[in-house]
Amino acid sequence: MTDASAPTPAGASPWGRRLVIAIPYLWLLVFFLAPFFIVLKISFSDTVIAQPPYTPLLDLAQGWQGIKDWWAGLDAENYGILFEDELYVASYVSSLRIATIATLLTLLIAYPMAYGMARAPKGWRPMLLMAVILPFWTSLLIRVYAWIGILSPEGLLNAFLLGTGIISEPLYIMNTETAVFIGIVYSYLPFMVLPLYASLEKLDDTLLEAAADLGSPPWKAFWQITVPLSLPGVIAGCFLVFIPAVGEFVIPDLLGGSETLMIGKTLYNEFFMNRDWPVSSAIAVLLLLVLVLPIAIYNNVQAREVGAKT
Length: 310
What we know:
Layout: H1 14-43, E1 46-47, E2 54-55, H2 64-73, H3 77-84, H4 86-119, H5 125-133, H6 140-151, H7 156-163, H8 177-201, H9 205-213, H10 218-229, H11 231-246, H12 250-255, H13 263-273, H14 277-309
Antiparallel strand pairs: 1-2
């Protein structure tokens, strides 16, 4: 970590260094904090049939009285609705459950892939990395639509299984949670593979050789050396998959059925179908808190552990 009180290197301007540090914070302020506070303000408003479809509105032309009237009109009623209506509670719980299962499935598939890439000859690794990144060159929407053609009763999967005689009648995978799991795992698999590969590729092979010399079997060396050293990649990959999966809308909307509840679909319906901006804003704020608070707690624990070691 750079000490702010350290002398500035020759030829480097202290204002230039501060500007470089301030740019990321300015970016977050403009494109994250400002929109977040706008959504937070709307979440404390009331629904009206108007444009925009919420009140109160902040009228700066009225001066201090306008600010007081706006503040007096804010209330937390929309957050109470989220806990009173079973639809919203079920949507949150279902989203967390689906995202957790999908993250574990992605980890089970990605770990062997990343391990094989890290153990492949160095000349092959760039090609394997390109194969992992290649799906990003195609739109997510197109890739999800492709799965409709694969998983539908008349799709490629059923045609292959029926043609080979493995099944006697079509499998109904579309419009189920199974299809949602397949879509999420496929779409977010690179986000799990890449951080895992970055951790495994840096693994010192001499540690495994030393374990073998001491009589440790390969499977034991794997669990006691490889897995613990790859935990940073596991944690990073799980965060990169779990966080967007919780708020996923496209995949459950296209591959899941009407009974597949996820908070992303509920948020979309409240915002565009019911035109209830205050409630939809409250859903978005609560979803953000559900995702950010565990990450903040984890970072705090990690910082304390690092501080204790030093």
